[in-house]
Amino acid sequence: MNKLARILLVELEEEFRRDLNWHLERAGHEVACVPDSESAWRLIAEGLQPDVVVAEAVRPEELHPLRESLPHAAHLRIVRDQQKPLPPSEVPDDPTRCSGDPGEILRRIEEVLLRYDPNLGHDEVSRCMDLARRLANSLLQTRSAKGRIDLVTDGFDTYFGVSGTLMVRRGPEEEDWIEVRQGMDADLAQRVSEEICRRTQVRGLRPFLTSLEVNGVAHHVACLAVQVGAVETDLALSLKTAPQSPRHRESLMNLVGGSMRASMAEEQAAESREQLEAQVASFESLLSMSREFTAVPNRRALCASILRALHRELQMSRAALFLSRDAGRGMLDLQATNGFPESLLERIGLSGFHGVGAECFESKAARRLGEFAAQGVAVRELQQLSAANLHWAVPFRLGTRPLGILLFGCADDFAELGAAERQVLHALLEAASVALLNLERLEALQDLAIRTLRGLVAAAELKCPQDRGHAERVARHVVRVGQA
Prior knowledge:
With about 475 residues, the chain is α/β, with parallel strands linked by helices. It has 13 helices and 15 strands. A five-stranded parallel β-sheet has the order 2-1-3-4-5. The protein is elongated, with a radius of gyration of 36 Å. The protein starts with 5 loop residues before the first strand and ends with a helix.
């Protein structure tokens, strides 16, 4: 690997010095680390001529001796009490000042390397700096892979001109790669793919800007990685012009690649925040629905409450709920409907052993009814469900025990359930499963209590046959009084 620059690092704290040295060498720089100014003077006296001096100093004047001794080097002053990195678009009052964040130090080194080259004019430096600054500002605001690709392409086209593009999605083997090119001839595209493959095998694809010779003609090619969903894709641009200095090429691509990685990291952070917010909302919805479901007196009232919650949380205006008749996968009884009369489905006869019921119990998530196999009894069942404008089916169970099937739909009949909708639906089914189990236990306790009372009454009547029927008559009178 070619060294990008010689860096003199002056840092008192050993742990921070080692950490920063590791980051700098990993980026390809040649680093000389010393703990204090006296050690730095000895290296300079021995002939060290660094390109960049990075030193910890609270006040700018503390770097004056090093600046006077190394006038051709760029200087950065680390202020450790400033831990938060500065935005790329923010130019500080003191251009040498940066925080103790390794990422910002690397970025600032790339920027000063772009500015510092005594052999080249200002135009090339300013174009590289303007492009890097423009992409740093715009990429952080972009949340889509297509938007990032367009921004990079437009930016290079503005400052250096783009004559062709190539998108390469890498597979396990070179023959598995997928290429999409526009404005780039086949020979150059093949040469670019070979260069990407070579760099990938050696040290992983790093952003690069190089010259490739094809049929005796040199082409400037810039390439960097773009995350498209879960797949890493390489974007290669054939440029009409390019910086002449190897240092400028490396620094420019490092800055662009850093901005791209920061953009993708920001997107991942935004997705994580959205998932966390959805989970919090799902948890709050689960608590609310659990309180609502535990307040109902019987199974039919619970089913009606579940359908009301489905309408309220997901705007599903039509729904039906079937529960297993026993603890297995036998017949399913219609318990409640919403948006249409129960008579529309009272003759459907769903079962967990065949048709829509069996296929639904085999599913682990909500599925569109249009995906179900239309054969056998499922043909008639799907026709009846379609007539009720029910488009989705989802099983709900407690562990491995099937409890029932929830069918739902709405007027819009949207094509897919989003992640947020599936979170809410999952929370609803979890709350419904727990509430149904609690209701079953309560019913079992009530049944046990009634059977116990009947046993006591039977024992009393055996002892006193003349009082037979007295307890039941008293019970009827008590119920009437209570109703009145």
